[in-house]
Amino acid sequence: MAIMRVPSSTQTFQPVLERIADEIGRTPGRGRAADYIPALAACDPRSFGMAVAELDGTVYGVGDWREPFSTQSITKVFTLALDLAREGDELWEHVGREPSGNPFNSLVQLEYENGIPRNPFINAGALVVTDRLQTRTGDAAGELLAFLRAESGEPSLDFDHEIAASESAHGDRNAALAHFMASYGNIDNPVPDLLDQYFRQCSIRASCADLALATGFLARHGVRADGSRLLTRSQAKQVNAVMLTCGTYDAAGDFAYRVGLPGKSGVGGGIIAVVPGRCTLCVWSPGLDERGNSVAGVAALDRFTTLTGLSVF
Ligand code: GLN
To answer: Which residues are noted in the entry as substrate-binding (predicted)?
Structure first.
C-alpha cells in the first residue's frame, strides 16, 4: 500500500483525515461509553472527531472535531508538564515512570511499593502530581484551565460541574487511593481538597481541535504557542516517553505497537498523540474497550500512522 503524501506548505492533512473518518464510519462495534461516572454514560458512542495541528497552529479536522467532550485523564499530561516545569526532577522521587501493567484505577501495587505510584498517568500517580501542583500554585485545576485556554486560543474552555459532581459522588476508589498514599506521607494537601481539584481537572470539556493545539508544546520540544518555553527539550522528551510507555494504561504496549506515537487516553473517549517535531493529534469517540481506551480512537490513530508513515519509528 502506498503511503499518502503528507503536507508540505501547499498540501493538507485533510484527505487522510477524511479517508480515516470514512473507514471508521463503516466499522461496526465501537465499544461502550464509560458508565462508572454516570454523567459520561449518556454520550453517543457513534460520535467521532479527529484533528491534526501543525506546529504553527494550523488545524485540520473531520467529523465532530469541534465538539467539546470530557477530557478526563488526558489532563494528566498537562498537569505533569505544569508541575515538572516548576519542580523539576524532585517530582520523580514521589512518582515513578514505569508502566504499571494494571488498570488505571488499580490499588494493588501501591502497598508493596510504599505509596509511590508507578507512573503519573494512572490515577494514583496523577493524584500525586495534582497534589504537588496544588502545593505550588494554590489552584492546580485553575492553572490547568488557564494553560489549556491559552494554548488552544479558546477562552471559553471550562469545567463541567455536572461531571465533576457526578465523579465526586462516585469517587470512592480515587478517595481510597489518595488516603492510602497520604498514609505513606506522599500527599501534602487534605484529601478532600485534593479530590476536589482532581475531579474538576478531569471534568474540563474541550474539543479535538482545542486539545490538538494544547498538546503542541510537546511536538515543539517544550515551547508554548506564544514562543515561550514551558519545558526544557529534555523534559519534553521525558513527558513524550512516559506517554508512549504509560499513556494508555495496561494497553500501552499494544498502543505503541499499533500507533507508534506518544499518546494519552481518557475515559471520555479522547486520545491525544504527538509526532515530535511535526504535528499533534486528537481523536474522540466515546465507545471504550475494556481497558478504558477509545476503540475508534485507537483504530483511527493506527490508520493515521499507517497511511502517512508519521510515527516515531
Ligand atoms: N476521572 C477519571 C477517574 O479518575 C479519569 C480516568 C480516565 O480517564 N482513565 O477515574
So the answer is: 73, 123, 167, 174, 198, 249, 267
